[in-house]
Automatic annotation (TrEMBL):
EC number: 2.7.1.30
Gene Ontology CC terms: mitochondrion
Protein name (Swiss-Prot/TrEMBL): glycerol kinase
Family note: Belongs to the FGGY kinase family.
The Carbohydrate kinase FGGY C-terminal domain, residue ranges: 271-469
One family name in Pfam for this protein: FGGY_N
Gene designation per UniProt: LOC104211349
InterPro entries documented for this protein: ATPase_NBD, Carb_kinase_FGGY, Carb_kinase_FGGY_CS, FGGY_C, FGGY_N, GK1-3_metazoan-type, Glycerol_kin
Regions annotated as coiled coil: none
Superkingdom per UniProt: Eukaryota
Enzyme type, top EC level: transferase
Amino acid sequence: MSDEEVFIGSIDQGTTSTRFIIYDRLARAVGSHQVEFTQFYPQAGWVEHDPMEIVESVRICMAKALDKATADGHNVDSGLKAIGLTNQRETTVVWSKSTGLPLYNAIVWMDVRTSSICRKLEKELPGGRTHFVESCGLPISTYFSALKLLWLLDNVDGLSEAVKKGDAVFGTIDTWLIWNLTGGVENGLHVTDVSNASRTMLMNLKTLDWDKSTLDTLGIPANILPKIISNSEIIGNITKGWPITGIPIAGCLGDQHAAMVGQSCRKGEAKSTYGTGAFILLNTGEEMIKSNHGLLSTVAYKLGPKAPVNYALEGSIAIAGAAVQWLRDSLGIISSANEIEDLASKVTSTGGVYFVPAFNGLFAPWWRDDARGICVGITRFTNKSHIARAVLESMCFQVKDVLDSMHKDAAQKSDGKTEGTEFLLRVDGGATVNNLLMQIQADLLGSPVVRPADIETTALGAAYAAGLAVGVYTQDEIFSSGEKMKKATTFKPVLEEELRKKKVDSWCLAVSRSFDLADLSL
């Protein structure tokens, strides 16, 4: 069978949309479809999704992508070897095993309703905010699944009783989708992978199993948790009722971990994904590094049941592309997201305006859930182009904050650097089509930024993991980045060092002004 007749499918379930992409053996997309789904905001700081709508979005995308590939002459039906899955992390679902229905909406990763639970735990536990860091690498934060699960157990009528009866189960979005894809109420598989499990606050990073002491401390019953598996292995076949049936699901990774695989990030290499939020990960190899500068220790990937674990340092930024959506949907300054580049290009600077998008607090490296969004430095000279440019700069400043922390933690000048070579940052995600954004990023870092030819590397990473499990790809093929780099676009810094330092100092001042604003009167 030729390379053109072998296919891998990839489900890419993000924060605002779902995609299904079909790749051939040469990792070229031959069919794809994407749909957006509803965002629910019941209260300030609350963000929810309808789990059933997410399942339906996968069904639609599968069917449409298959139709497109077939219409273009690709015999996907006979050549499809496996399906990979990548997903928004931390987002939490509880559902009934008997009915297959969610017991509440999915609580999304950026939701901050658990702030009071976090504060209570910080006061009660001897280790305070970092009480669980030794086992899971994560601080107590609204970000992670365990706190969302505690809120659900405390606030959803009938959930505690369903747990006692053995009918309620918990999962992140990967778990929810795999359960539905492999049968649902008819013996659907209840599993998660190491990368998604590492974001719950419940998995021990060393044993790669649920941490009993953490479960006991939080009062979370182990029987509602899924089985933890690797990122690349045959999990189970897709059952009847789906547009594709009988094909194995063979790869599963959280979106940022999938992007690392899609970007061929080996030990010492870093990538930044720009989506709703921004996520910067540095592969630290088989060594787990504990951060002293506000970053998270996490699993990078484990590409097979017997494969070694690669760990990572991560800096998570809650609001990146979401700030552009805010300009479009809430302020009406732009009518589509791609307009921001032209609008921001009408000025050569922000005119002294700094925008801190702390809509739901600040994640790494600040970890301030009391922060709120601010725009400072406004004068009568300020116009909407200055605001637009300040929004783009805010994304890049936040990435720089994280990379600076990574440099300190890695105790070396640069993350992706080997002797005799300069540091460069691999980037991906939808926002990276914005050339101005990428140039600003290079200028503020003082280092090159490299954008691959295929910027949607999350879906590609999941396809690689699935293909690896069924023998379509080898690790050497996945991690040989030479050819990919030749096709990439590199943005080199042109900003003078003195001005860069002044802008960074001004940004840090603006960030400090965003603190302690959570209780402002309505």
